Amino acid sequence: MQLVVLGLNHKTAPVEIRECFSLSEDQVRHGLRRLYEYDEIYECVILSTCNRTEMYAAVDDADDALPVLEEYLASMTGGRFAVSAYLFYYKDDDCIRHLLRVAASLDSLVVGEGQILSQVKKAYSVARDSATTGTVLNTLFHRAIAAGKKVRTRTRIAYSAVSVSYAAVELARNVFGDLSCSNVLVLGAGEMSELTARHLVDNGVRTVFVSNRNFDRAVALADKFHGVAVPFEDFMKCAVDADIVITSTGAPHYIIRAWDVAHLMPKRAGRPIIFIDIAVPRDVEPEVEAIAGVRLYNIDALEAVVESNMRERLQEAQAAGAIIEEAVAEVLAKFRYLAFRPTLAGLTAKAERIRQRVVKRAFAKLPDAPPEERRVIENMSKMLMRKILRDPIVNVTEAAGTGREHYYLEALRTLFKLEEAGEEEHRDRENCRRHPRQ
Description:
Layout: E1 2-9, H1 15-21, H2 25-33, E2 41-48, E3 52-59, H3 62-76, E4 88-91, H4 92-103, H5 115-129, H6 135-154, H7 164-176, E5 183-187, H8 191-202, E6 207-212, H9 215-224, E7 228-231, H10 235-238, E8 244-247, H11 258-264, E9 273-277, E10 294-298, H12 299-365, H13 371-399, H14 405-415, H15 419-434
Parallel strand pairs: 5-6, 5-8, 6-7, 8-9, 9-10
Antiparallel strand pairs: 1-3, 1-4, 2-3
Helix pairs in contact: 4-6, 4-12, 5-6, 6-12, 7-8, 7-12, 12-13, 12-15
């Protein structure tokens, strides 16, 4: 049994290609219901987000399964299939490592983003509900999700802002701390203004005022935040009640001058104010920064924060990488055992049956043996069985995943006549592959 992942992501394919492979949850569920049509695929989980579509599978032979997986993926995307240059195909250790890095957001477009872990959980849940996972992928995804959580709790990979709009929020928190008592005035009603206002609202600001030259657009944006629209000619009057002013207009000149702010501050009774100017060209005259009680941040200052935070995240990613490598080793150790579990279980069960028969005969010849002696005999027989089986089990387990794996499996089954164990393993695989998808 081999683990493989076939897919494409933001590193291997441009957006126009990724769009063709983006699958809705209904499409994924429909595709998984058809897994029984592909004899070469025993288990499957499909992860599809805006930046990646990846198919994780348990197969007998990775090379033989590749064209089958390609056909399966193509069938779910309406036959729109990208050339191989856009696809990656990882096997075994590389497949395990890739999923763990994905779950830990180390493979994301923005390192440390939090959404991917929930998307991995959802993809696994959908596959499990569709009965397309078994021991192999259940083990892999449980460990991947646990590793993703561990990275987020043991590192600061998700603690700092790595977008201009969120950096503005971070700067505001540095000044005011709790934003629940703060009001924000947004000048401009474009995408950047809306995104910054959204982050501020999510962080608890009390009231959002919106002003724009087109008053209807100001009303529309204010309605999204249950805020207040302000006529553009009155925005400086509104600034008296604002603690944070976000400016992102398309004006070709300054719309907030030092003279205006100098006359504004006495009306604020000593309360500080932050101007966050994310417009290009700038909306706020640079001399504003020299006025007492005023802090001014422009786009360059915000981008410097983002760059610094990104460096911090990349440093944290190194610590996260060490956590991932530990998790990869744990998964491999688990799979080394799983590969031989049916055979080793058969060996142990057969040894136990023999032990019980021999002990039963011994007790028949010792009808007067007291209970204490019977317990000694029982325990001694169990200890003998464990000691005799210990070295074979250890050596066989160490051979899992190596070129000796098949040899040891066949040797054990032949020497100890464990055909039943082999048949049981074969039945399990067939049940996994042939299980009807509802």
